[in-house]
Design goal:
eight-stranded mixed beta sheet, three-stranded antiparallel beta sheet, 16 strands, 13 helices
Length: 418
C-alpha cells in the first residue's frame, strides 16, 4: 500500500510507476474521492460543532427557565444531517481503502524500464555454463522416477510425483536448505500451509492475484502461494521495538499457484508446476537497513547455489518483470544444460514499506517518537523442483547416472544417484 501523501501530492509518480509496471492505475478516482472526503469531513465537523453549541445553549436556557423547543428541533435536524454525512464519509473511506489495495508499489529509481524480462539487467554470474556438450533434459534422465501418469491420475496436469531416488533427492535438498538457513542465523518457523484473506491482502496477493490462488471457498482460506505470506503475517498489526530488529526467519512449505500452467510454455518436466516446494527467508528491518539487507540475502542465496555447484546468474528485474508488491527484485537463475536455458530458482525482493502499510507492521524507535513502518524483504533459499532439474542436468554422467555435489555427498555418504 502506498503512502496517502504520495497519492495526494505526487500522482504523476504513481501513474508513471503503474505504466512502467503495466498495471492499472485508478489514481483519478482516488483523487476525486479524496476531495469528496475532505469536503464531507469539513461539513461533518461543522455540524458537530454546531450541535455542541446548541447543546450548550439549550442547557443555559433551561437553567434560565426559557423556551428551548426551537433549539432542540434544530439540534435534532443537525444530528440527522450529521448521520447522513457520516454514512457518506464511511462509504467514501471504504472505497478509498479498496482502491488503495490496487495501486502497485513504486519501483526504485534505478530499476531498468522495460516491458518484460528482455529488459532485465544481469549484474553478475558465477560458474561456467556447459554449453558445448549435447546433454539430456532432466525428464529423460529421471525417467520413471518422475511418474507423470500417476500424478495425472491422482490430480491432473502440472502436478508432479517423484519416486525412489528422485523423491529422496528432493527430501535431502529440503533438509539441507532449512539447515543451511537456520545456521545462518534465521529463526526456523513451521507455519500453516493455508492463509486467510487478511494475510493474503497484507502481502499483496489479494486482490491483484486472487484468480491465480487456490481458494477453499467454504472457509474463505487460500493454499499458500509462498512462505512469504505466513512468515510476514506473523507480525501483522504489531508494533515492534527497535531493539528487536532485524527479524530473520526461514521456513519450508509446499506452494500452490494456479497460474503455473497458464503461460503455455516451460511446462515440461519440473519447470513449471502448480505445486512446488520451497524454503523461504523473510526479513523485517528498519527502513535504513533494507538496501544492505537485500544485497546480503541475494549473496546468501547465491552462496547456496555455489555449494550445489550450479552455474548461475543474478538479474535486476526491469519494471515490466517486477512483481506487483516489489520495489526492487533480483532473480537468481541456474543453467540447465540439457535444455540450454536458465531456470529461475530464487527471487529476492525488497518491498520497502508497501507490505508493512497493508499489514500495519510498525516499530517504535528507541529514541521515542511515533511508530514507523518497517521494511519487509523475502526470497527463496531455495525453490524446488527446478533445483532438482538443474542438479540432474548438470550432474549427469556418461552412464546415465547423476553425480551429487560435494556438499550433498558429504552429508549423505552418497555421490551417485540413478
Amino acid at each position: 500500500m502506498l503512502d496517502r501523501d504520495i497519492l495526494r501530492n505526487d500522482p504523476e509518480r504513481v501513474r508513471t510507476a503503474s505504466v512502467n509496471k503495466g498495471e492499472a492505475c485508478p489514481i483519478d478516482e482516488w483523487l476525486d474521492l479524496d476531495e469528496s472526503r475532505r469536503s464531507l469531513l469539513a461539513r461533518t465537523e461543522d455540524l458537530r460543532r454546531r450541535r455542541n453549541e446548541l447543546s450548550t445553549m439549550v442547557s443555559s436556557l433551561k437553567k434560565q427557565g426559557l423556551d428551548t423547543a426551537a433549539l432542540i428541533r434544530e439540534s435534532r435536524e443537525v444530528g440527522r444531517e450529521t448521520g447522513v454525512l457520516e454514512k457518506e464519509l464511511s462509504s467514501v473511506d471504504a472505497r478509498m481503502a479498496e482502491i488503495e489495495l490496487r495501486f502497485t508499489n513504486i519501483p526504485d529509481p534505478d530499476i531498468p524500464v522495460g516491458k518484460d524480462e528482455s529488459s532485465n539487467r544481469i549484474v553478475r554470474t558465477w560458474g561456467e555454463p556447459d554449453t558445448e556438450r549435447d546433454l539430456l533434459p532432466h525428464w529423460e534422465i529421471l525417467g520413471g522416477s518422475m511418474d507423470q501418469e500417476a500424478s495425472g491420475a491422482i490430480t491432473g496436469a502440472n502436478f508432479i510425483l517423484l519416486r525412489g531416488w528422485a523423491a529422496w533427492l528432493q527430501r535431502i535438498l529440503i533438509n539441507w536448505m532449512v539447515e543451511h538457513n537456520s545456521r545462518a542465523g534465521m529463526e526456523e518457523i513451521w507455519f500453516p500451509f493455508v492463509a486467510n484473506r487478511e494475510s493474503m491482502a497484507a502481502t499483496g496477493q489479494i486482490p491483484k492475484l486472487e484468480e491465480d490462488m487456490y481458494h477453499i471457498e467454504k472457509d474463505d482460506l487460500f493454499l499458500v502461494p509462498t512462505g512469504e505470506v505466513p512468515l510476514t503475517n506473523i507480525y501483522r498489526d504489531s508494533i515492534l521495538l527497535e531493539k528487536d530488529l532485524p527479524i530473520a526467519m526461514c521456513g519450508y512449505s509446499p506452494c500452490f499457484r494456479r497460474e503455473a500452467g497458464s503461460y503455455g510454455k516451460d511446462t515440461r518436466g519440473l519447470n513449471r508446476v502448480h505445486q512446488f516446494e520451497k524454503v523461504e527467508m523473510v526479513r523485517i528491518v528498519r527502513p535504513e537497513d533494507s538496501p544492505e539487507v537485500h544485497e546480503e540475502m541475494v549473496s546468501h542465496a547465491g552462496r547456496m547455489l555455489e555449494l550445489l555447484e550450479l552455474p548461475y546468474r543474478v538479474s535486476l528485474l526491469s519494471t515490466g518483470d517486477l512483481g506487483f508488491a516489489a520495489a526492487r527484485c533480483y532473480d537468481l537463475e541456474v543453467w540447465a544444460p540439457g535444455q540450454k536455458k536458465w531456470l529461475e530458482v530464487s527471487s529476492v525482493s525488497n518491498f520497502r514499506d508497501f507490505q508493512a502499510r497493508r499489514g500495519m507492521i510498525r516499530y517504535r524507535p528507541s529514541d521515542g517518537g511515533r511508530p514507523r513502518f518497517v521494511h519487509t524483504l523475502n526470497g527463496s533459499a531455495l525453490a524446488l523442483p527446478r533445483v532438482v532439474a538443474a542438479l540432474v542436468e548438470n550432474g549427469q554422467t556418461e552412464d546415465g547416472r547423476v553425480r551429487l555435489p560435494a556438499v550433498l555427498a558429504e552429508l549423505t555418504g552418497v555421490d551417485r544417484l540413478g
